[in-house]
Design a protein that fits this description.
This protein is α/β, with parallel strands linked by helices and 298 residues long. It contains nine helices and 15 strands.
């Protein structure tokens, strides 16, 4: 897989001088829009459109974390089958949002089990029923409360739930041997996050969740993030968790101070930036709205 990925990602560069402009353009359009990157211990990530997918290959079969959308999940399945014809043992969802579960349906009659936190399933069912898309979904058949674990091949996989954050059903999936933790949308790396209050999100609790994650995993852990401003930064280290925790603390403190100063919601969301942050990403408004609503709700 590493060799195939290297060839796919560097083959165009190697031959660029030998191609005409027309040939170069044709070659560009033939390149797959997705990217696969191996991390360590037979654990890799897949990105195309949606939240970052993680996967693990063992002698027993494949384990997949999240599924993006139907087309993207099919691309992943096709690529993994090129490695070796193995069964898909587990599909694990970090939470219920469509860019993480929309492709679950591609694993119907393929994945032996679909795993998620009990609130992930509750939210997933509710949203699917509201949008009348239940038949287009593949729901979790294994759920858990605080933790869940499973051994597959040489790897021990453990899921952790530390409380409400981005939603009230976000899980961290840890490959213990490889020491890789898939955070789902618990970290938006250098991005203003989506705070889904309709699904039980809590900024105050989110801060505690990140602190607990920092205490749980060590300095050698590779973290996989659901989203990042830079596509190359969907993986990172503990320092990225610290930076996101700082973002949440500053966000909460800023909006709380504005409310105490008598500012209205409309006044607060006019801010395009949060003081003390140098993030280039846009989208501060949605974070400010969610924070105001959390702090003023009864």
């Amino acid at each position: 897989m590493q060799r195939r990925t290297f060839i796919r990602n560097t083959g165009l560069t190697a031959g660029i001088m030998a191609l005409s402009s027309a040939e170069l353009m044709a070659n560009l359009f033939q390149q797959p829009a997705y990217k696969i990157k191996m991390l360590r211990g037979n654990v890799g990530i897949f990105n195309e459109r949606g939240g970052t997918i993680g996967f693990y290959q063992s002698a027993d079969g494949f384990t997949v974390i999240d599924s993006q959308f139907p087309d993207q999940s099919k691309h992943l399945i096709d690529e993994l089958k090129k490695i070796k014809e193995l069964p898909f043992k587990l599909l694990i969802n970090t939470h219920h949002h469509g860019d993480h579960t929309g492709g679950n349906i591609s694993f119907k009659d393929i994945a032996e089990h679909v795993v998620g936190h009990e609130n992930c399933l509750n939210n997933y069912l509710r949203v699917a029923q509201q949008s009348k898309t239940v038949e287009k979904q593949l729901f979790q058949d294994i759920t858990f409360g605080e933790t869940w674990k499973q051994k597959t091949g040489k790897e021990k996989i453990r899921a952790y739930y530390f409380g409400a954050a981005h939603t009230n059903g976000d899980a961290i999936i840890h490959f213990e041997q490889a020491n890789i933790a898939h955070m789902g949308d618990l970290v938006f790396n250098q991005m203003h996050p989506f705070i889904d209050r309709s699904s039980g999100a809590s900024i105050k609790s989110w801060i505690t969740v990140i602190q607990t994650a920092r205490d749980t995993f060590d300095d050698d852990t590779i973290f996989v993030f659901g989203h990042a401003t830079d596509p190359e930064k969907v993986t990172g280290k503990k320092a990225d968790l610290v930076a996101f925790e700082d973002y949440l603390l500053r966000l909460l403190a800023f909006v709380e101070a504005e409310i105490k100063a008598g500012k209205s919601k409309e006044d607060i969301i006019k801010n395009k930036e949060i003081p003390g942050l140098s993030w280039k990403a846009s989208g501060a408004e949605r974070s400010l709205i969610a924070t105001y609503d959390e702090l003023t709700s009864k």
